[in-house]
Amino acid sequence: MTIIDAHVHIGRFMPPFREGSDDFVADLIDSARSVGISRLVVTSLGNRGYTHYPTPQEFRAANDHVLEAMARFPDVLIGFCYVNPRYKEESLGEIDRCIVAGGMKGIKLWISQKASDSVVDPILARAAELGVPVLQHAWYKTTGNYPDESTPADVAAMARRHPTVNIIMAHLTGAGYRGVIDIAPYPNVHVDTSGGDPESTVVEFAVRELGAERVVFGSDAPGRSFGVQLGKVLGAGMEDERRELILHGNVERMLGL
């Protein structure tokens, strides 16, 4: 069975990058393959540690690392371009550099700006022009979100303004049942299965409310274990046809693989 992980991170601040080696990417691929995952959608949120509001220099350096890793492992890695919508022109230029020229397949937005804010609109408009998806971080935190961190309700607002863009809302088990209900009316929003440890019935709930065509497998590795996160899908009660859509079919369709 083909399995594609739609949500994986690399970054040169992670060991052993601090010692000047890129062996971590190879080790990450080996770890994924050990549980049957054959391809990884990768982003970098920074090379010196995560910053909520990266400068153009910082997100370019992060994307450089992804481009280098893609060149080293072209049959395994699929890159998404990380940008900060607060820097409109620089972000649009970076999208063209990474996607049009560099071969990346999507855009990553984290917590520099809420998805409901119009500041993100130029990024979504460019995604529509290029026909690529946007992976948008979202969470409902009991401790309270960061100042510009999106909730699923923010993602729903983004989807309402940009109905032709495929949006992958990250973190099903961070969004929870409430988050699934928020995005249910918007068929262009998908959800990945990452975001915490496995919890019984959450994946089944998402499939029932959204349809299997709108759920994709994502681990958020290396912050979470490939095998544990894969268990959310393999252990969920559903037909094999739906499971295969989640594990690879939906991502293949969105990315044109």
Short descriptors:
257 residues, alpha/beta, TIM Barrel, 8-stranded parallel β-sheet, 9 helices, 42% helix, 14% strand
Structural class based on helices, strands and sheet pairing = alpha/beta
- Helical fraction equals 40-55%
The number of helical segments is 9
What's the number of structural domains?
1
Describe the structure.
This protein has helices at 23-34, 56-72, 88-101, 121-130, 152-161, 172-183, 202-210, 226-234, 240-255; strands at 4-10, 39-44, 77-82, 106-109, 134-136, 167-169, 189-192, 215-216. The protein has 257 residues and is an alpha/beta fold. The protein has one domain: Metal-dependent hydrolases (TIM Barrel, Alpha-Beta Barrel). Strands 1-2-3-4-5-6-7-8 form an eight-stranded parallel beta sheet, with helices on both faces. Helix 2 (56-72) runs parallel beside helix 3 (88-101). The protein is globular and about 45 Å long.
